[in-house]
Every structure is written in structure tokens, then in C-alpha cells.
Amino acid sequence: xxxxxxxxxxxxxxxxxxxxxxxxxxxxxxxxxxxxxxxxxxxxxxxxxxxxxxxxxxxxxxxxxxxxxxxxxxxxxxxxxxxxxxxxxxxxxxxxxxxxxxxxxxxxxxxxxxxxxxxxxxxxxxxxxxxxxxxxxxxxxxxxxxxxxxxxxxxxxxxxxxxxxxxxxxxxxxxxxxxxxxxxxxxxxxxxxxxxxxxxxxxxxxxxxxxxxxxxxxxxxxxxxxxxxxxxxxxxxxxxxxxxxxxxxxxxxxxxxxxxxxxxxxxxxxxxxxxxxxxxxxxxxxxxxxxxxxxxxxxxxxxxxxxxxxxxxxxxxxxxxxxxxxxxxxxxxxxxxxxxxxxxxxxxxxxxxxxxxxxxxxxxxxxxxxxxxxxxxxxxxxxxxxxxxxxxxxxxxxxxxxxxxxxxxxxxxxxxxxxxxxxxxxxxxxxxxxxxxxxxxxxxxxxxxxxxxxxxxxxxxxxxxxxxxxxxxxxxxxxxxxx
Length: 483
Ligand SMILES: Nc1ncnc2c1ncn2[C@@H]1O[C@H](COP(=O)(O)OP(=O)(O)O)[C@@H](O)[C@H]1O
Ligand SMILES: [Mg+2]
Fold this sequence. Notes:
Blueprint: H1 11-15, H2 23-38, H3 44-54, H4 59-64, H5 70-88, H6 97-116, E1 157-159, H7 173-185, E2 190-194, H8 201-212, E3 218-223, H9 230-241, H10 253-263, E4 266-271, H11 293-302, E5 308-313, H12 318-323, E6 330-334, H13 342-348, H14 357-363, H15 368-382, H16 386-391, H17 398-408, H18 413-423, H19 431-438, H20 442-454, H21 474-482
Parallel strand pairs: 1-3, 2-5, 2-6, 3-4, 4-5
Helix pairs in contact: 2-3, 2-5, 3-5, 7-8, 9-10, 19-20
The chain binds adenosine-5'-diphosphate and magnesium ion.
Magnesium ion binds at residues 201-202, 271-272, 312.
């Protein structure tokens, strides 16, 4: 039987004597089971199909709202049934889905209640605890203390099903101190953690959650990797918030979420923000249909409330630039490499020749993902000898090239041209030199450089006097030269 942390969210019903499950409860339970089994959230089509099945609609009826054939929708339904049947321990079909889910829930609730000893407070929800708030207005989860970073909150509600497990975690002491200072002491409302894919944004956010969650009423982790539109994102948040009471029915979904952020101290982590930005454009350009996320960041940054939204992104939303500043409640931090702490990663891989590690770490700029990939190669090819690997200079590694390729495909054409121009020069180049090489206008070049800078792809060596010059990390240079 699966053991995952969403089970307890189905408990309050039984604990308060209300055994009936609504459509939304069936839907949430089934989607959580699928997530726990497959590690993937339901996509838009699967959600619609599941809802349709639960409402006992015919496949032809469900297919009407989609540009898919009835047969395709039926296949999607069959796949859902296959996954659910495995967990529910019986053959599930359209007619018995609700009943099977109900049976599963009851047996799991009994199981969990036994494990949790009824009044125990889990890190998830207050199982069978004090009576649940019934007011339509958000009601703080039995936490009477004034929000204060020194007051731990015993009844924190966690929704971390989306957060990966990152262990072990090394270094980043300074960054963690800065982020905690911003979030807890200075009560920043919007904090962006930026940096290249693999630099450790998710990892540091997980660490922050571990270290700070007792200072919040709600800690919620959401990844945008499946590109939910804003309305889906907000209604999903409201679903979680409203487990403790009813959702305020005033205003649109965004106002309702803001109401929760005002009434409670919430830490909302939004990971993988870059997936809602479009490829082939300059950094921070939203995909069609996703521009309204801008309003969310703006409201969270500008309006008064008690919560913090922590954004992880390869490149920042443009709005952050205007909202962030030393004296403003929005900040951003850009992660660079791990430095010497990256040695711990190499140690975990059992690499030899520790005197050469510093060279390896510098070459790969202390980037944990790059180093993990290279460490695997060193282990597989050179029995773990870093010295032997270094003898070959920068040996191209297909796994690393694949990762970089994914990122470079997202760049605009102009950015790609600028990178090629930089790689074509032996020395770092200035904006003026780039202009001569590419015969392009200053405006275009300036914007392309700014975009590359926002994507953390440029280095600006200090050793070249007053004029700002641009170069690339050796890994990127090598990748582009091979390309
Ligand atoms: N400080 C760290 N200590 C140990 N491993 C780390 C650290 N930061 C990142 N990693 C590892 O590096 C990889 C990439 O990190 P991740 O947080 O996913 O990067 P990002 O979110 O920036 O794409 C993961 O395997 C992660 O566990
Ligand atoms: Mg990440």
C-alpha cells in the first residue's frame, strides 16, 4: 500500500463524523493516488476525463469539449483506471470508481488513525484535533500568537507533495542566512531565487522549508513544471487552503488567495517558474496564456499581507526587477557555484586525487549538477581518478551536452548569435567589440546581453580594466565550440 503524506487530508471528514465525499474529494483523492503512483500530476486532459468519469458522463460527452476523438479520451480513461486499479486493489471501472475510492479511503483512514493515535498532530494536518473552523472567513489554524519569527507555530499545515527530497545538502550557509534574514526578519513578501538549471535553486528552497516551516501557518510547495494556467494554479491553492474551512466566496480566485496570504503567515514556494516563459524569446517573456501570472507577482509584491512567495526560476520575471530593491519587500538572489563545499559531492562519488578537486570544481564553476554529471563520468571511465580526467583537459560529456542543449534551445536567435560571437574570440569582449563583430544595433545587442545576463550565462571578468567585458564559463565555451 502506498504511504504518502496526502492521506491525512481525507481524515477530517471521518473525524467530524461527516463521511460523505463530494465530487471534489473523489477527484482529489484519485489524482493524489495517481501522483503517488506515477510521480506525475494529472495533465489537463486527464483532469477533465477524471472529472467526467466521476460525474458519470459518457466518453463522447467528455470528448466534446476537447479537440480529441472519443477513442483517445477512452484510452486516457483506461490508463487512469489501470493505475487506480493497482492501488485500490480491485478492478476499477466507470461504474465502481466512486465506491472503490470510498472503500480505499475508509480503510486508509482507519489505518492512519491507528498509526497516528488520534490526537497526534502530524506535520501535515491537525488530525482529529480541535474542531475545524467552519466560518467562511479564513481562520488562523489555532495559532493565537502574533506572527513573529521567534514564535514557532505548532500547527503548521504542510503541502509538500510536490517538493523533491534533496539530501544530502552542502554549503550555501551565506545564501541561507541571507534568505532567512529577508523572509523572517525583514518579512519580504516576494523573494526570487535565480540561477541556471542545476545550480541548486530547488535544493536551497527545500532546505529553507526544512529550516523555517515552524514559523508559518501554511507551507506550500508548487512546481510549475506542468505549466498550469493561473486559474488552475489558484484553484489548486484554494483547495488546499479550504481544507480547514470554506473558501471566502468574495471576489475572484486571486483575491481569495490574497485573502489567505493576508490572514495567515504562509510560505508559498513556486518552483520551475521558467517553464511558463517562452522559448526563442528574450528572458522573462511569458508563453501565450500565461501573462496573467504577472498580476500574481505584482499583487504579492505590492499589497500588504503576512506571507512570503518564494520563486525559483532560471530567469526572473521582468516585474521582479521593478519590485525588488534593498528597501522594498521584494528581493532576488542569484546563486553561483558551491565553491569548496562542492568537494563533498565529489567525496560522495568516491572520487580520488583530492588535490585535483579544486581544479575540477573551478572548471565546472562549482555547479552541483555539472559536477555530479562529470563525477559520474570520472567514476565510470577513469575508476574515479580526477587526475587522469584532468590530463585530457575538458573531455566532452554527452550527458552534460544534452543538458546544455535543452537550455540553449530556449534562447532567442540573437542571444545565440551573441554567444557564438563571444566564443569566436580568444579574449573576453566588450559591447563595442560585439557591435563590430555582429554589425548589429546597440539596442539589439544591449537587450540580448541583458537577457543572457539574466539567464546567468555570462561572466564579467574583473581583470580587464574599467571597460566591462563578457566571457563564458569553460563548460559553455566548450559546448558551443563543439556544437
Ligand atoms: N547545496 C547542495 N548540496 C548538495 N547537492 C546539491 C546542492 N544543490 C544542488 N544539489 C544537487 O544538484 C542537482 C541540481 O540541483 P537543483 O536544486 O535541482 O537545481 P535547480 O533547481 O537550480 O535546477 C540536484 O541533484 C541536487 O540535489
Ligand atoms: Mg529546480
